[in-house]
C-alpha cells in the first residue's frame, strides 16, 4: 500500500462545492464499500499516475450507494458506513473525495451527461481509473468503451483496471460479504488487508448486562442490516493507547425481545466509564450464532461459556 503523501484528505460534498485544480486531477469512481485490497490496488495505480503527472488524486463516491437507491431495504448490507469508508480512504494516497448525492435526477443522467458534468466540467479529469466491470449512467448504459471513446476526443486517458485476485479468487465486496456471513474472518482479513471492524459511539443502554453480571459497552449500529451477526472474540481500540480484549454480540438480542440492531461488547478486566467515546471494534473469530434462550438464566450460563472461549481464543491468537 502506497503511503499517503503529505496533505490531509479533503471531503467535498456535491459538484457545486468542487474547485478542481486548474491542471485537473487523476480520478477514480466507485462505491468503495469495504475499501478492500482490490480498491487499494486501483487507488495505488491512480496515485502512481498522479505522481507522474503532478496531479492530485480524487475519488468520486455516491450517497446513498446506487443499489441502496434502487433496491431500498432489499439492498445488500454495507461492509462499511460512510464514516468508516472515509477513515480507511484517508489512510491511502487520496487527496480528495467527492460525495455526490445519488437521487432520481442523478439516476436519470445519461452516460454522456455524467462524463461531461462530473469528469470534464467538475473534475477536469486527466486520467481515469475504473474497475473492469464499471457501468454508469441511466440504465447502466455507460461502459469502458464509451469512456475511452470520450476520453480520446476530450483529451483524458482511461484505464480499465483488471480484477484483483488472491489465490485465483476475485476480491470483491460481495465475496467479503459472504465470507462475513459464514464467519470466515481470516479470509475476510486477507481480502481487506486488515481485520474487519466496526466504528461507533458508546451509548447508555438498559444496563441489562450489568444486572446479569456481564456489563457491556453498547454501540448503536446506525444501520438497519449488517453482513456480520453473532458472538465474536474482539478487541476494542480508541480508549487511550490500549487494545482491550472482549467478546461482542452483534444482532437484535432475541432473548430480551430486542428489535434494533445493536453491537454489545463485554470487555475483560475493564470497568471505566466510556460513554460517548468513539471506538473501533475489531472482529477476530466467531464463537457462535446469535440465538434465543428460554430464560435469562440460560443466557447467563451461555455468556459465561462464551467469555471463557473468547478469552482463550484471543490469548492463542495474540
Structure report:
The chain is an alpha/beta fold and about 325 residues long. It is about 30% helix and about 25% strand. The strands form 3 sheets. It has a 6-stranded parallel beta sheet. Strands 9-10-13-12-11-14 form a 6-stranded antiparallel beta barrel. Strands 7-8 form a two-stranded antiparallel sheet. A hairpin with a 2-residue loop joins strand 7 (about 165) and strand 8 (about 170). Helix 5 crosses helix 6 (about 145-155) and helix 7 (about 175-180) packs antiparallel against helix 8 (about 185-190). The protein is elongated and about 70 Å long.
Quick rundown:
The protein is α/β, with parallel strands linked by helices and 318 residues long.
Topology:
Layout: E1 10-13, E2 25-29, H1 37-53, E3 57-63, H2 66-71, H3 82-89, E4 96-101, H4 104-107, H5 111-122, E5 125-131, H6 144-154, E6 157-161, E7 165-166, E8 169-170, H7 173-181, H8 185-192, E9 197-203, H9 208-211, E10 217-220, E11 230-237, E12 244-251, E13 262-267, E14 278-288, H10 296-317
Characteristic key phrases:
single chain; 318 residues; alpha/beta; Rossmann fold; Elongation Factor Tu (Ef-tu), domain 3; six-stranded parallel beta sheet; 14 strands; 26% strand; elongated; disordered N terminus
Number of strands: 14
Distance between the termini: 24 Å
User: For this structure, what is the CATH class of the largest domain?
Assistant: Alpha Beta
Which range best describes the helical content: under 10%, 10-25%, 25-40%, 40-55%, 55-70% or over 70%?
25-40%
Strand percentage, roughly?
A: 25-35%
Strand adjacency order, main sheet: 1-4-3-2-5-6
Q: Can you identify the CATH superfamily of the largest domain?
A: HUPs
Question: What is the CATH architecture annotation of the largest domain?
Answer: 3-Layer(aba) Sandwich
Largest sheet, if any? 6 strands, parallel
- Overall pLDDT confidence: 89
Structural class: alpha/beta
Shape estimate: elongated
Low-confidence stretches: 1-6
Q: Radius of gyration, Cα only, in angstroms?
A: 22 Å
> Number of domains in the coordinates?
2
What is the string of SSEs from the N terminus onward?
A: EEHEHHEHHEHEEEHHEHEEEEEH
Amino acid at each position: 500500500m502506497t503511503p499517503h503523501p503529505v496533505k490531509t484528505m479533503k471531503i467535498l460534498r456535491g459538484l457545486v462545492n468542487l474547485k478542481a485544480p486548474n491542471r485537473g486531477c487523476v480520478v477514480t469512481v466507485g462505491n468503495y464499500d469495504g475499501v478492500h485490497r482490490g480498491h487499494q490496488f486501483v487507488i495505488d495505480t491512480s496515485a502512481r499516475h498522479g505522481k507522474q503527472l503532478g496531479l492530485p488524486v480524487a475519488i468520486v463516491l455516491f450517497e446513498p450507494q446506487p443499489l441502496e437507491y434502487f433496491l431500498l431495504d432489499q439492498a445488500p448490507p454495507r461492509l462499511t458506513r460512510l464514516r468508516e469508508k472515509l477513515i480507511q480512504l484517508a489512510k491511502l494516497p487520496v487527496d480528495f473525495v467527492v460525495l455526490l448525492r445519488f437521487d432520481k435526477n442523478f439516476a436519470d443522467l445519461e452516460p454522456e451527461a455524467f462524463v461531461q458534468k462530473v469528469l470534464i466540467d467538475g473534475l477536469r479529469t486527466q486520467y481515469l481509473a475504473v474497475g473492469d466491470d464499471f457501468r454508469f449512467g441511466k440504465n447502466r448504459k455507460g461502459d469502458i468503451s464509451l469512456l475511452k471513446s470520450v476520453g480520446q476526443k476530450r483529451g483524458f486517458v482511461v484505464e480499465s483496471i483488471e480484477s484483483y485476485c488472491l489465490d485465483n479468487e476475485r476480491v470483491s465486496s460481495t465475496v467479503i460479504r459472504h465470507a462475513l456471513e459464514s464467519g470466515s474472518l481470516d479470509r475476510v482479513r486477507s481480502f481487506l488487508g486488515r481485520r474487519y471492524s466496526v466504528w461507533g459511539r458508546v451509548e447508555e443502554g438498559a444496563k441489562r448486562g450489568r444486572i446479569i453480571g456481564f456489563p457491556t459497552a453498547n454501540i448503536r449500529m446506525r444501520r438497519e442490516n449488517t453482513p456480520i451477526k453473532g458472538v465474536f472474540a474482539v478487541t476494542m481500540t480508541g480508549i487511550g493507547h490500549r487494545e482491550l480484549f472482549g467478546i461482542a454480540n452483534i444482532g437484535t438480542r432475541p432473548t430480551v425481545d430486542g428489535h434494533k440492531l445493536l453491537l454489545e461488547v463485554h470487555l475483560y478486566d475493564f470497568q471505566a466509564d466510556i460513554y460517548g467515546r468513539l471506538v473501533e471494534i475489531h472482529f477476530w473469530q466467531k464463537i457462535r450464532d446469535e440465538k434465543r434462550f428460554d430464560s435469562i438464566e440460560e443466557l447467563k450460563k451461555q455468556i459465561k461459556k462464551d467469555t471463557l472461549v473468547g478469552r482463550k481464543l484471543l490469548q492463542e491468537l495474540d
